[in-house]
Amino acid sequence: MSLEDLKSMGLLREETQSRLEGRVSVLYLSGATVVVLVACGMMIVGDGNALTGWGIALFLLGFFALIGANLRGVMKGRMRED
Amino acid sequence: MTQATETVIPTRPRHSETELARDLKCFDITMVGVGAMIGAGIFALTGIAAGIAGPGLILAFALNGIMTLCTAMVYAEVGSAIPGAGGGYLWTKFGMPGPSAFLVGWMDWLAHAVAGSLYAVVFGSYVVWGMQTLFGWGNPPTGAEHGDMGTLFGLNAWYFAKSLTVAVCLFFIWVNYRGSSETGKTGNIITVSKIITIAIFIAFGLAALIRGDIGPSGATVSEKFTPFLPMGGSGVLVAMGITFIAFEGYEIIVQAGEEVVEPRRNIPRAIFWSLAIVIPIYLLVAIVCIGALAIPAPLLQPDGPYPPGQTWAYLSALGETGVAEAANQFMPWGTGALLLVLGAMLSTMSALNATTYSSTRVSFAMGRDRTLPAIMATISPRTRTPVAALFASGALITIVAVTLDAEKVAAATCVMFLLVFAAVNLSAIVIRRKYSDRLQYGYLMPLYPVLPIIAIVGQLGVAGFLFWHEPLSMYITAGWIGLGLLIYVTYSRKQHHDLKATPVVFEQHTLAGDAVPRVLVPVANPTNAGALIELGARLAQADGSGLVVLHAVGVPEQLPLSATGGFVNAARELVDDSLAAAAAAGVPAVGLVRVSHHPARCIIDTIIERKCRTLILGWTGPKQPRTSYEGNLGAKRPLLGSQIDRVLFQSDANTIMLRGSLPTDPKRIVIPIVNPRQGRFAIEVAEAVAGENTVIDLIHVGREQSAVVASAGAVMQEIFDSAQIETTTRRRGLKVMMQPLVSVEVIKTIAQAADGADLIIIGGTAETWWKRQAFTPFHAQLASLFDGPMLLVRRRSGAAKFASQLTVEFFASKEPEQ
Fold this sequence. Notes:
The complex is a heterodimer of chains A (82) and B (818). Chain A has 82 residues and is mainly alpha-helical. Helix content of chain A is 65%, strand content 7%. The mean pLDDT of chain A is 81. With 818 residues, chain B is of the alpha/beta class. In chain B, helix 23 (676-689) links the parallel strand 11 and strand 12. The longest helix of chain B is centred in the first third of the chain and has 35 residues, at 100-134. Chain B starts with a strand and ends in a 6-residue tail after the last helix.
């Protein structure tokens, strides 16, 4: 496939068009990633006890934060001038 | 015998003729994704995966969620920039070389179809189970034996389950036929009902788990989750692989890209919303199934097989109906079974709806590209749905559901999904690298390219574990890929080429006997056409073939190809004259006129279609010799000419470029020689153009006397099997003299040695497997110092080396294909 194919599909950006980009906060995303990884560690270390339960809860929290970071990135897409 | 064919320039199908209706909103496609994910995954595979990972199933779901999110971010990015039917298949066409896109589409098609058949099978199982338990019309499975479905109306329940499986498949073929809007509406109702049903199930399960008063076993909640990883980490990895099928549904969101309103924004949003709904549901279902399920007293040790805390093992034995059994236990007033049967029916129906939809879109996209038969791209004029692709995919789903053991095939399906996702992740890296400045994104993933790389490593790792755990999955995957490659080589490659090839507007044959034209001579300039035809005729006579005479008409980019006006008539005259010259030389020939915005493309297409072994080009010589090599394609300044560079890079034929006129009876031909492989070809060409008494002088230049003599001897040994500096050619017995010369100024020394020669033939440079490089600035500089007739010759690389070079170049270059 080539640029010509993209052009025929109407997907090439016009020269005069601004570029729309989703913007995800790397700091927010990294923080949430650390949380979910820590949560997975807690599940294993807990070996079925209360710590595992807390790990699951923390995982859900971190996962929602990850999704939230990405949704925020889509919603707050910026227009970038070339 | 002369035969002429004139063709009107074929117009490609307008995009609108193969365009789908765009009427799905963000909520609709979110529900499509949720519907696809929450299907048989939690109902059929929770029990199976629990048997593999134990309570670690929760961790497997969590890790799958993270891995899925990595790939989902990739899908969101590329899906927002290139929304179109086919999804991953479409993107790998831009992001991977060769047959990769076809194989991705091929695997994606089967994987979705098998996933759909799994959902249909589970639907049948649950309805039968409901009839057995709710209405008492038979005996449900006991859980003591795998595969037992019990009885219904006194007969084996298996027959009823399969009949229901076929019925539900046919129903969703009909729903999908009615249009994407209907598909979306039906899917929304079913999916929302399903989420509510599962939410009620989870709520009662959590309540029971918190109360901790379930069952006769006396095991505490904590005991049911301890040990958390009874099968170790490998069990978690295998469970991840087995259940991955339940995480792939977001891919269906991008399959709908062509039918989504405002896809740039809605596709990423729908992907993330669907994961936000699905992943927590999976975790909670796994928690309540293991934590709130109780083992019936007769099955407890010492009389039964299970220790009190091992609910995961009991869940595993129940298989597809394990979740229903859990609901039956912890929901009040006997509503558990009813609710779960309802939930499972809705889940499997929405997932079947979504996979029918997605497998249809993949095969439709492949049909549109002609990599599957063109009939697959047929759209119903009434409903605007890809009707042929739908019936083919529906038939595949139904046949797999009825004939194969869907659970066993599911592992292979997971491997295929994993391979498809790994390919898409790689494609996303390449697409951002090559096309990012030209595309408009609605979402950009952060930490590029770390996330796709993590996803690739994870997916290949899990696929490897699945191979190890389920060798059958490896055999099925390898068999399907092998079958795909066979179809690609024998059918798809040619069909796709024909669709994309530059059109032939005129063709004329002057062929006689069995001669097959294998020497391609593009002619454009009447002043050198005669010399090129003469050279071509000598080479064709030497190998007993004929000529393909081509005139490539270049149409400016701003004009359509049909606007060739009088150019084609002028081209026909030149082709007619060239055919006459070939006939006079006694060589059969075929004449072609092609039109394109890029004349080089016409030559490349002709080489591929006519399987031309040799290409003869005219060359005017260097205009501004370059001092350094920057790669043939995408270089700021062309080396030999922009069109010639492109032809040399993108095609693989023995190439001979003529500068000046061809001497009729050359007395002395000079060949500078370094690389024996290219040198041997230069000598073959010299034999073809030489006269009866021609002497071929080989010149070998080095910096030190002893080294030059030794390497000259080695070259002679390699080419003639004799280290003598004087010998004769094999075919015509022409005299060959080797001259070892010592100099630090190689180019000037060769030019001096060639002084007075009737013809100089310069071989191409030695090539590696990873870099395509026919000629270098050395050749251009030498051409600028020698005024006489000159041939630049290059032996073809061979199919394997050519493919390897293009693959490396594809990933190494930042330039998009033009």
